Request: fold
Amino acid sequence: MIKNINIKTKSRSEFVDITSDISKILDESGVQSGLCYLYVPHTTAGITINEGADPSVARDIQFTLSRLVPHQNNYAHLEGNSDAHIKSSLVGVSKSVLIEGGKLFLGTWQSIFFCEFDGPRHRRVAVRSAGDPA
Ligand code: ZN
Reply:
């Protein structure tokens, strides 16, 4: 069954650590070994896995993406948020994480981030855990 994580972002660009939300859904699923599939059904947001211990890393990634993809750049799309669409495509809207021992198989410093590029908005992340119950 697909479960949703609902997120209310507070600023235009923001990385939200959703690792504990996903872990809670995984715990409830009872899956011990398998795959956790994460999907962001939005065109101006994304999902990434990177360091969660030092918040400077997420800030540096956002800063660099904004340098690579400026907000204004004579884009054809008239909604004024082409940068957010481009960042969404660069970062991607899905991730798969292995499940082992009933836990997400993440490295010590890894966290899973919902990436807002055109907030503040109400967002969601779809989570599907599949595998063996034992
Ligand atoms: Zn748009």
Remarks:
- The two ends are 18 Å apart (CA to CA).
- The CA atoms of residues 6 and 16 lie 11 Å apart.
- The longest strand covers residues 122-132.
- The mean pLDDT is 97.
